């Protein structure tokens, strides 16, 4: 299970002990080795060697790994001791003469934040000696429109206090924060240790995933409205990634879950104008540029294409848009926002991702993603049967398009006083295209890429078959006739819809008219990406499921 603060001390005298410490902390945080390596900016092989106790001369890379995991160290060991005990092969001269101070340790304080929904205080979040507590406000408990924050934090009792091992309050609120490298970058900009989740919520809680605003008790009302964001300004921010976050100059800090760089905005679909919300206003859209990782190029056109394809296959998804600044940018309508025609300000809907709904730490988003969990999630919704059908369509679609990143934080649920309902799908893209020969060269593993979530009898895409996908439907709770009807309908229409959509993209009809013009090289590279998705990934999976 993932925790946000590890009170562990490791006496490190050898490279083997350093590796044991790194491995223990990474596993305690529920982090995958490849994700940790990517977030720290080191290679997967390097991190593997460190965890195996292999000596290295690359002190800077070790320090980045330690910082990513929140391990605080003091380097006051003499160089001769380090060399003698074979921790490193050679210490750079600067490292032996400078004083390397650790980040300030997290001081356990009595801290608290008001939790607000659409200007109504629904409770207070507290931290006392590293134990988190949430107390519902009496007004919220008496409100006939009220609802539970989550099933594990119900209104059946006013006070919810975490234990030493089961921490539903901490897990719930930690799930509001960004993950991996994005959290590390924001923590540096905010000068708050990455492991201090409560401190990060205090500075980033003005705009979280879903409905909640977290603020200091008694805080003055924040200014409402918006600030225009010109494409030139957006372009400059994108160019500074990943050294500075997209919101480093924004009037409002945001705490959106996930690992990608993103920012909250207003987007006028008619004019194409962008604006940033002032601190007291809720945003209406989320904006993402291309991934900064070299291994995942053209993520904007990938996600825009995949989401639009999902809509054509009758999956409920928000409307998505694409512009060039001239860098490509993906914009998605927020399904957790609403307003009437008479309202100026957007209001918030209460949303839980699947980890929050099941009271899991974010570190379990992959391990607990399976068809049995999809059935469990369906059974928690007020419309159980229709939810099972939708989740089966989602599973089939992800398999056909090659989305191996369909984890539990990529499913969300809307919560009202009437119950729980599945939210529109999001974060759909073909991850498998990045492990084809076009992008992975000699390291290509397609179609042996792992399935997330796996289905009965298949843990990689190459093992998928029609019978196994029908068995997955049964495991979710759908009868074979219904599962067969959905599967055959989607497989039969998939390629024709993909072909028509690719033609629209090649003609530029997916781009807002207010967009800047992309370069010819950009257009060519994106077209190559779409063809690889269609003729390598989709063609393979349609054949397997036919």
Structure notes:
This is Multiprotein-bridging factor 1. One of its GO terms (molecular function) is protein serine/threonine kinase activity. Residues 22-75 form the HTH cro/C1-type domain. Keywords: Kinase, Transferase. Belongs to the MBF1 family. The protein is of the alpha+beta class and 546 residues long. It folds into 4 domains: 15-97, 434 Repressor (Amino-terminal Domain) (Orthogonal Bundle), CATH 1.10.260.40; 111-215, no CATH class; 226-338, no CATH class; 354-545, Orthogonal Bundle (Phosphatidylinositol 3-kinase Catalytic Subunit, Chain A, Domain 5), CATH 1.10.1070. It is 38% helix and 15% strand. The protein has 19 helices and 18 strands. A 6-stranded antiparallel sheet has the order 6-8-7-9-11-10. β17 (450-455) and β18 (458-460) form a beta hairpin. α14 packs parallel to α17 (466-476) and α18 packs antiparallel against α19 (520-545). The longest helix has 27 residues, at 480-506. 44% of the residues are buried. Residues 1-9 and 74-108 have low confidence and may be disordered.
């Amino acid at each position: 299970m993932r925790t946000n603060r590890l009170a562990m001390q490791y006496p490190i005298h050898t490279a083997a002990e350093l590796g044991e410490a790194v491995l223990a902390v990474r596993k305690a945080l529920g982090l995958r080795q490849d994700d940790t390596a990517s977030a720290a900016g080191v290679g997967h092989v390097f991190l593997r060697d460190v965890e195996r106790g292999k000596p290295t001369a690359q002190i800077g890379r070790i320090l980045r790994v330690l910082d990513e995991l929140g391990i605080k160290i003091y380097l006051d060991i003499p160089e001769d001791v380090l060399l003698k005990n074979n921790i490193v092969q050679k210490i750079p001269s600067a490292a032996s003469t400078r004083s390397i101070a650790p980040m300030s340790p997290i001081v356990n304080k009595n801290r608290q934040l008001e939790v607000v929904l659409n200007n109504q205080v629904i409770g207070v979040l507290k931290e006392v000696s590293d134990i988190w507590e949430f107390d519902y406000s009496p007004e919220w408990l008496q409100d006939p429109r009220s609802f539970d924050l989550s099933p594990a934090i119900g209104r059946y009792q006013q006070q919810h206090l975490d234990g030493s091992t089961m921490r539903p309050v901490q897990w719930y609120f930690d799930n509001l924060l960004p993950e991996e490298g994005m959290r590390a970058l924001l923590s540096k900009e905010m000068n708050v240790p990455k492991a201090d989740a409560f401190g990060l919520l205090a500075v980033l809680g003005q705009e979280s995933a879903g409905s909640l605003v977290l603020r200091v008790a008694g805080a003055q009302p924040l200014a409402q409205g918006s600030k225009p964001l010109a494409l030139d300004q957006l372009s400059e921010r994108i160019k500074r990634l990943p050294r500075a976050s997209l919101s480093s100059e924004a009037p409002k800090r945001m705490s959106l879950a996930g690992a990608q760089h993103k920012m909250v905005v207003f987007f006028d679909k008619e004019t194409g104008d962008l604006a940033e919300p002032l601190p007291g206003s809720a945003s209406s859209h989320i904006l993402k540029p291309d991934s900064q990782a070299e291994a995942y190029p053209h993520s904007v056109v990938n996600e825009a294409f995949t989401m639009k394809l999902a809509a054509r296959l009758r999956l409920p998804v928000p409307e998505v848009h694409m512009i060039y600044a001239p860098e490509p940018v993906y914009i998605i309508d927020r399904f957790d926002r609403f307003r009437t025609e008479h309202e100026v300000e957007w209001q918030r809907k209460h949303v839980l991702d699947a980890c929050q709904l099941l009271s899991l730490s974010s570190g379990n988003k992959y391990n607990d993603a399976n068809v049995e969990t999809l059935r469990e999630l369906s059974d928690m919704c007020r419309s159980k049967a229709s939810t099972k059908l939708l989740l089966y369509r989602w599973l089939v679609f992800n398999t056909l398009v090659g989305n191996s990143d369909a984890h539990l934080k990529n499913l969300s649920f809307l919560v009202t006083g009437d119950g729980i309902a599945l939210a529109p799908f999001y974060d759909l893209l073909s991850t498998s295209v990045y492990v084809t020969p076009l992008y992975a060269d000699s390291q290509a593993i397609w179609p042996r890429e792992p399935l997330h979530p796996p289905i009965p009898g298949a843990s990689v895409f190459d093992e998928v078959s029609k019978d196994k996908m029908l068995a997955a439907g049964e495991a979710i709770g759908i009868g074979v006739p219904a599962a067969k009807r959905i599967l055959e309908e989607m497989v039969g229409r998939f390629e024709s819809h993909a072909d028509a959509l690719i033609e629209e993209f090649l003609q530029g009809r997916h781009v807002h008219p207010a967009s800047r013009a992309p370069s010819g090289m950009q257009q060519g590279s994106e077209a190559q990406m779409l063809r690889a998705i269609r003729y390598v990934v989709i063609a393979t999976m349609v054949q397997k499921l036919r």
